[in-house]
Design goal:
The protein has one domain: 5'-nuclease (Rossmann fold, 3-Layer(aba) Sandwich), CATH 3.40.50. The protein contains 7 helices and 5 strands, in the order βαβααβααβαβα.
Length: 151
């Protein structure tokens, strides 16, 4: 079974996990927080999407022990240049995950098809969609519970 040490979520994963967001510790880019803020006040987003953004922000605020926010700095933009990618929010988020993955292997989670493809094919990240992530987390929980029952 796959042992996931770190989970890195992109913005759509944060929006769509909702109450499952804080079931396991995770990392996000500073850019994700900026996107959540923009979504919640956007006149172009529907009320459900705005609600999801507000709910995610509350979850993050109420569970600081579950989230690590990775700052967007000059090194992230240098990675974008190295890979000859534009400075889009998705690319900034994936560059942040790439840098963190170099420090310690992680699982990048997104349901955005382009984001998953670039993450896997350009940055060489271990990538999963939300349903796969939920399966991985519940599988890890079962293994953890089983180990504790044995002890």
């Amino acid at each position: 079974m796959e042992n996931v040490q770190k989970i890195f979520l992109d913005t759509n994963a944060v929006l769509n996990l909702q109450d499952d967001l804080v079931n396991q510790p995770f990392m996000i880019s500073q850019k994700t927080l900026e996107e959540l803020e923009n979504i919640k006040v956007s006149s172009n987003k529907d009320s459900e999407t705005k609600y999801k953004a507000r709910h995610a922000i509350r979850q993050i605020d109420e569970n600081p022990d579950k989230v690590t926010v990775i700052r967007t700095d000059l090194e992230i933009y240098n990675i974008l240049c190295e890979f000859e990618l534009e400075s889009s929010p998705d690319n900034v988020i994936m560059s942040t995950a790439y840098r963190e993955n170099k420090k310690s292997p992680l699982l990048f989670c997104s349901d955005d098809i382009c984001c998953k493809t670039i993450g896997r094919e350009v940055f060489g990240l271990n990538v999963k969609g939300l349903e796969d992530l939920k399966t991985t987390i519940s599988g890890n929980d079962r293994v953890y519970r089983k180990r504790n029952e044995i002890q």
